[in-house]
Amino acid sequence: MPLPNEVNDIVQRIDDYARSGQTPTEEGRQALHHAARKLLEATEKPQDVAWRFALSPLSQACMCAAWRCQILHPWPQQRMTSADLASRTNVNKKLVMRLMRALTAYNVFTEVEEEVYEHTALSKALSTDPLAQTLQPMAQRILGSTSKLPDYLQSISYRNPGDDSKDKTLFSFANNTDLNFFQWLEQRPEALAAFDKSMASSIAMERNSADKGLASIFPFESELGNLSDGNEVTLVDVGGGYGHVLEDIHTYLPNLKGRMVLEDLPRTIEKATHLDRIEKIPYDFMMEQQPIKAILRNTRPAMARDKSRLLIVEVVLPPTSPTLWGAMMDINIMRYSGAVRKESQWRDLLASAGFAIVKIWPPVQNDSVIEAVPTEWL
Fold it and tell me: Where are the beta strands (DSSP E) in the chain?
């Protein structure tokens, strides 16, 4: 807990910012956010923080319910009563009040008078596309599996998920199925449509984060521009979804020569009908016991010395103090026995498949680009 003098300094810094009326730089914003968190720590009782943390899954469940029944959506007017929301959504008025009570406790909406509500910045973010179409379905998928995490870890004797290929995934355990996630989706058209829509919204946000969309994640022209005469393959995107990265490269980097190839699951390739200039190859890498190592094993023999390099677009966690997003994404993909890794873990994984990291290109948004080559080339 900060000392009294430190608290006074924090309050002064926040007050100076409020009085300035200026928009801080990103670095300044992060420093201010850190100061605000320190002030919060100084004024909260540890037991209150513990209760809020332990009860937070309930607020997330209420958020998902409110989004699904359209309470957590844009409103036609600034203020809405519980009766207004009940009439608008066909939800029982008492239930509306109970959901709103839970959500306002976490600053999702604010109650300005008894049972009279307004949106907050948080509720607007959670209810406005494309973020809402990304977060809400993902939150519902997470809730369905992670509540089983303690039982699941106990069932596999607390081994690291993914280390033993004979272990079920958390997703399979939670849903009492032997199917993997994509096989399970195939049997549920409604869930599959929601997943596809969520992924499309996520891709749209990534594309909008840079001037050249996803072509900005790596200096493709300067690094790959002289490697092909136009007839050779310049890029193969394995697990590239509907081809959004290759499509942006074609759009924003028209002078980059060479053929481009998209590899993904057969059902995904079938839906990538808009890619006229990109070759498409179905590849069911999910049938492998360890998909990442299988992809690396299959890639290495196809690489040409002094020309080819392996590019992995992934989150690279720092050695300590990862962001909340990075830490939680690791637990999120644990559901499928995946992992978010630190640089040292990436180096170990790649070394086990005969690769060495040449460079890690910093992220444009969340994902870095890991550049690697076969170890014997170095």
Answer: 79-81, 110-113, 116-118, 233-238, 259-264, 279-282, 310-314, 316-317, 341-342, 355-361, 368-374
pTM: 0.83
217 HSE (CA, 13 A, CB side): 23
Cβ pair 271, 289 in contact under 8 A = no
| For range 297-309, the mean pLDDT | 87
CA distance 41 to 342: 28
Provide the 10 A C-beta neighbour count for residue 60: 17
- Distance (Å, rounded) from C-alpha 289 to C-alpha 300? 18
- Kindly state the tokens that stand for 357: 């990291």
Strand partners, 113: 116
pLDDT band of residue 210 (cuts 50, 70, 90) is confident
Instruction: Kindly tell me the sign of the dihedral angle through the C-alpha atoms of 166, 144, 328, 42.
Output: negative
d(CA 85, CA 92): 9
Partner residues linked to 312 by β-bridges: 370
Higher pLDDT, 92 or 229: 92
User: SS3 for 58?
Assistant: helix
Residue 7 clears pLDDT 80, i.e. is over it: no
Whole-number Å distance between alpha carbons of 268 and 253: 25
User: What CA–CA distances, in Å, run from 238 to 123, 241, 325, 350?
Assistant: 36, 8, 24, 16
Calpha distance 357→378 (Å, rounded)? 10
- In whole angstroms, what is the distance from residue 371 CA to residue 373 CA? 7
Q: Round to whole Å and give the CA distance between 149 and 57.
A: 13
C-alpha atoms less than 13 angstroms from C-alpha of 81 in its C-beta half-sphere: 6
The pLDDT of residue 302:
86
Q: Give the separation between CA 128 and CA 34, rounded to whole angstroms.
A: 27
Return d(Cα 346, Cα 11) in angstroms, integer. 41
- Judge whether residue 2 has pLDDT over 60: no
Which residues 6+ apart lie within 8 Å of 264 measured at CB?
A: 238, 239, 240, 241, 242, 272, 282, 283
Strand-pair category, 79-81 with 233-238: unpaired
3-state SS assignment for residue 289: coil
CA distance 167 to 161: 8
Tokens of 42: 């100084």
